[in-house]
Amino acid sequence: MNEASNSAQAIRIWDWPVRLTHWLFVACIVASWWTAEQNVMDWHRYSGYALLGLLIFRVYWGFFGSSSARFSQFLRGPSGLMAYLRESRDAHREAGHNPLGGWSVAVMLTLMLAQVVIGLFVSDVDGIESGPLSHLVSFDTSRTLADIHEVVFNAILTFIGLHIAAILFYVLVKRDNVLVAMFTGHRRNVRLHAMRPVPAWRIVPGIVLASGVVWWVAT
Fold first, then answer.
1. Is residue 6, in this structure, part of any structural domain at all?
2. Considering only CA atoms, which of 107, 108, 95 is closest in space to residue 25?
3. With contact defined as beta carbons under 8 Å apart, do 143 and 131 qualify?
4. What's this model's pTM, rounded to 2 decimal places?
5. How far is Cα 175 from Cα 28, in angstroms, rounded to an integer?
6. Which residue among 192, 200, 213, 217 is least enclosed by CB atoms within 10 Å?
7. How many CB atoms within 10 Å of residue 204?
8. Is residue 30, in this structure, part of any structural domain at all?
9. Phi-psi region of 88 (alpha: psi -120 to 50; beta: other; left: phi over 0)
C-alpha cells in the first residue's frame, strides 16, 4: 500500500542504512570531540576516518538508496520550499524529510564533510600531530586550517542544538515522536506515501567506495 489508509497504520519511513549511519554519525562526533579534548590524537584520527567513510556512503546512498534517502526527494528549490511553508505540512506527502528539514540535513552533511576534509590537512602547533594530507600544504596554511576546523565544529554543534530543539518541538508541542522512527524505521499517525526500497546489493558499492577512499587517505 503506497499511502496510509488509516492514521494508526505504521508507515515505513527510513531504511536501515539511513538509521545506522545517523546513529554512527552521532557516535563519531562525540568520539571526535572527546578525543580532541583529551588530546588522544591517534583515536581522534580514527574517528575522523570513520566519519569520512560514513559521509561518503551517505552521499552515495543519497543518489542510489531508497526513496526517502535520496537528495532528489527532499531537496527542493526556493519555490518548492516556499510552497511547503505556505501550504503547511499537508503539502508534503513523501516519506522522509520535508523540504525544510531536507535542507537542514544538506547543511549538516556539508559541515561534517568540510570538518573531516579540513582535518586531513591540519597540523598542531608543534607540527608533531598532523593530518595525513598535511604535507600537501604549508605549515602556516595547516595552522590556519586548524582554526577553521574549530570554527566549523562550533557550527556543527549549533546545528545539532537546532536539530534537538526541532525534535523536542515535535515531541512536546505537536505530540509527534519523530525520534522513534529513527530507531524503528516506521511512523504512525501520518498520511504519507511509504518509502520505496531498493535492492540490498546496492549497499555493497557504497561500502566499497567509502572503504577505498578512507584506505587511500589513511595510507
1. no
2. 108
3. no
4. 0.89
5. 30
6. 200
7. 9
8. yes
9. left
The CA distance from 128 to 149, in Å, is 17
Distance between CA atoms of residues 150 and 145, nearest Å: 9
Q: In this model, does residue 89 exceed pLDDT 60?
A: no
Q: Is 1 within the bounds of a domain?
A: no
pLDDT on residue 127: 65
Number of domains in the chain: 1
Distance CA 217, CA 117 (A): 10
Q: Which residues form the domain of 195?
A: 11-218
Q: What is the CATH number for 99?
A: 1.20.950.20
pLDDT tens-digit map of 18-39: 999 999 999 999 999 999 999 8
Given a cut of 90, whether residue 209 has pLDDT beyond it is: yes
3 assigned to some structural domain: no
Separation of alpha carbons 20 and 149, rounded Å: 26
Question: Do 14 and 195 form a contact (C-beta atoms < 8 A)?
Answer: yes
* Among candidate residues 150, 143, 99, the one with its CA nearest the CA of residue 122: 143
